[in-house]
Specification:
There is one protein chain. The protein is of the alpha+beta class. The protein has four domains: 130 residues, Glutathione S-transferase Yfyf (Class Pi), Chain A, domain 2 (Up-down Bundle), CATH 1.20.1050.40; 65 residues, no CATH class; 164 residues, Neurolysin, domain 3 (Orthogonal Bundle), CATH 1.10.1370; 235 residues, Neurolysin, domain 3, CATH 1.10.1370. Helices cover 55% and strands 6% of the residues. The protein is built from 27 helices and nine strands. It has a five-stranded mixed beta sheet. The protein has a two-stranded antiparallel ribbon with strand order 1-2. Strands 7-8 form a two-stranded antiparallel ribbon. A hairpin with a 2-residue loop joins strand 7 and strand 8. The longest helix is centred in the middle third of the chain and has 34 residues. It is globular. Bound molecules: zinc ion. Zinc ion (ZN) binds next to helix 17. One of its GO terms (molecular function) is carboxypeptidase activity.
């Protein structure tokens, strides 16, 4: 069979690909990759960096290309057939990568090279590649004896079951709960759309009245707008007690089992705690450093948070005679106070942000900073006619990257916005092979009478994803696994978040924020208002984020063997961050899916960490002019082009001249005012 995915191609050959090509292509490419790896292992020559590490990093390239095409389609333009193929090939792909990680012969060769690492005169990038590859094996138990290896596999199997169970319980709790409202009075304050949705939901379940659930689109507006305080309390407690009812959906034992197994796993591999294990491959490096970071921010944010809390409590007392502000009052009175202070409306801003103007704006920003030029082209194949394609060139007219942009929602596209690639950058046999990068969003489409107009939030989203895009486009490394966004978790949001800063700057807005009918520039007092409202209750929000970081570290940064009472342990961990009275009926840990089901264990701090980085980096631009070519070049040279080739702290220091400092974030967030 002629399969376009198995022939050599530079650009993804979308017009030739049919769904039935995928599975045979995957199977063939996996087979080929296995053979390439066997050749490395069976090589009679003694292992060297070149014949083992380099060979391994360039093995399976066709498989990588097929995977990226397929999974990008599954996110942006899927259908039942593609979803079915995904279910079939996903287990095969995990088996494939497991086989590599468990390949003892391969590990022995890597280990031999690793043990000679200091006498090999490797470049920093080669050293990093060796270190990362070695650790990808050792962190999975390659150095353990057979008994310990067996135990490690048991723990991994048990953990994946428990994580699944944890998530299923949270989901079942969410789906199980409903608040049926039969008295119209109880709907007071709710927006029309929420009331309508609640009526429709009740009708669909053949109930009379209105149904409110724990799903965000129902829960959030109710907590923000419902005047009935008792019902807010009821709903808030239901939301906060998921997995905490001592029934078959209870997660307390699952939490304890998960943290104990993670601890045991870390110990087996030679780490004092799970957090030590995780943080070894993060910019923050150690639990001590994370705690120091959280505590430093807490010291600075707490006074602001307490001030804001008092302000909110006073406002609630004035308005409704509330004596003691509870958790279920927070969103409600905050929303009212915010309206009173800012009265900002998306509709007022949208005419200044026509999609085409914003895209043009982000391209102009990239041109001013990095000399990049985006040329729209029509000779590149695409997976949907709506996708736009660009060739990107630098000032010297060198080809930098291919850029795909896919902006509007379609039935086959998942929610949200993201950056991805169809091909990563690498250098092979002296040739720098340039990347193919894509941004995918879900912005409202234009109509026959109105262009696509973005909310301010969507504008920052576009800049954010474009920042990830630049990280991919400007990549300049040798090895594909270290290229572009292949960096530590707590470093990857720096290029994206830093780009958002330009959206608040007059010099940048002048490039694109013009009214789509009158051409008038967005009034600066509106921009000031956006900035101020973005900082509204920033102290409280920061302390809340920190509390989750502390809880995460409490579960993962210590020996958990003696913890018996989940709620009591959690209460202790929240002690330094509490603002509201304690609610005995609720428990955060039993539904904290980020850390017990998702990949955020010992990583929750990274949200704030990334903000510190981006504020500190942007402050450097501000000190020198937001379009300073000198600073932009440094950012490109030391951060954007380097990918994961060196420790991110070293890269950052080379760019900034110092480690990141939290003051820029405090300043930007208005937390330094007293
Ligand atoms: Zn991001």
């Amino acid at each position: 069979m002629n399969n376009p995915l198995l022939e050599p191609f530079e650009q993804a050959p979308f017009s030739k690909i049919k769904n039935e090509h995928f599975k045979p292509a995957f199977l063939q490419a996996m087979d080929d990759a296995r053979k390439e790896i066997d050749e490395i292992v069976d090589n009679p020559e003694p292992p060297t960096f070149r014949n083992t590490l380099e060979a391994l990093d360039f093995a399976g390239q066709q498989l990588d290309r097929i995977s990226s095409i397929f999974f990008n389609l599954n996110s942006a333009e899927t259908n039942e057939e593609i979803q079915k193929i995904a279910q079939e090939v996903s287990p095969l792909l995990s088996e494939f990568s497991n086989d590599i990680i468990l390949n003892q012969g391969l590990f022995e060769r890597i280990k031999t090279v690793y043990e000679q690492r200091d006498s090999l005169e490797l470049t920093p990038e080669q050293y990093t590649l060796l270190d990362k590859k070695y650790k990808s094996f050792s962190r999975n138990g390659a150095n353990l004896n057979e008994t310990d290896k067996k135990r490690l596999r048991e723990i991994d199997a048990e953990l994946s079951k428990l994580k699944l169970k944890f998530g299923e319980n949270v989901l079942a709790e969410t789906n199980k709960y409903e608040l049926l409202i039969t008295d119209e009075e109880d709907l007071k304050g709710l927006p029309e759309g929420t009331v309508e949705a609640a009526a429709q939901l009740a009708e669909s379940k053949e109930k009379k009245g209105w149904l409110i659930t724990l799903e965000y689109p129902s829960y959030i507006p109710f907590m923000k707008y419902a005047e009935n305080r008792e019902l807010r309390k009821k709903l808030s407690i239901a939301f906060g007690s998921k997995g905490f009812h001592n029934d078959e959906l209870d997660n307390q034992q699952n939490v304890l089992k998960i943290v104990n197994l993670r601890f045991e796993r870390a110990n087996l591999l030679g780490y004092p705690t799970h957090a030590d294990f995780v943080l070894e491959e993060r910019m923050a490096e150690t639990p001590a450093k994370v705690l120091e970071f959280l505590n430093e921010l807490l010291t600075k944010a707490k006074p602001a948070a307490e001030r804001e809390f008092t302000e909110l409590e006073t406002y609630a007392k004035e308005l409704d005679g509330i004596d003691c502000l509870e958790k279920w009052d927070s969103a409600y009175y905050s929303e009212k106070l915010k309206q009173k202070l800012f009265n900002l409306d998306d509709e007022k801003l949208k005419p200044y942000f026509k999609l085409e103007n914003v895209i043009n704006g982000v391209f102009l920003v990239a041109e001013k900073l990095f000399g990049l030029k985006f040329k729209e082209v029509t000779n590149v194949e695409k997976y949907h006619p709506e996708v736009k394609t660009y060739e990107v060139y630098d000032d010297a007219n060198n080809f930098i990257s291919l850029f795909y942009a896919d902006f509007h929602p379609r039935p086959g596209k998942r929610d949200g916005a993201w950056m991805t690639s169809f091909k990563s950058q690498y250098t092979l046999n002296g040739k720098n092979s340039r990347p193919h990068i894509s941004n995918v969003c879900n912005f409202t489409r234009s109509t026959s009478t109105k262009p696509s107009l973005l909310t301010f939030n969507e504008v920052t989203t576009l800049f954010h994803e474009f920042g990830h895009g630049l990280h991919g486009m400007l990549a300049n490394t040798t090895y594909p696994s270290l290229s572009g966004t292949s960096v530590y978790w707590d470093f990857v949001e720096l290029p994206s978040q830093v780009m958002e800063n330009w959206c608040y700057e007059k010099e940048a807005l002048e490039l694109f924020a013009h009214h789509y009918e009158t051409g008038e520039l967005i009034p600066m007092e509106l921009v000031e208002k956006i900035k101020e409202s973005a900082n509204f209750q920033e102290g409280m929000a920061t302390v809340r984020q920190l509390s989750f970081g502390f809880l995460d570290m409490a579960w993962h940064g210590k020996d958990p063997t003696n913890i018996k009472d989940v709620k009591a342990y959690e209460t202790e961990a929240f002690k330094s961050t509490n603002l509201f009275p304690e609610t005995p009926e609720t428990c955060m840990s039993t539904s904290f899916s980020h850390i017990f089901q998702g990949g955020y264990s010992s990583g929750y701090y990274s949200y704030k960490w990334a903000e510190v980085l981006d504020a500190d980096a942007f402050a450097y631009f501000k000190e020198n002019g937001i379009f300073s070519r000198e600073i932009a070049n440094k950012f490109r040279e030391h951060v954007l082009s380097k990918g994961g080739t060196e420790n991110p702290m070293e890269l950052y220091k080379r760019f900034r001249g110092a480690e990141p400092n939290i003051d820029a974030l405090l300043e930007r967030a208005g937390l330094l005012k007293s």
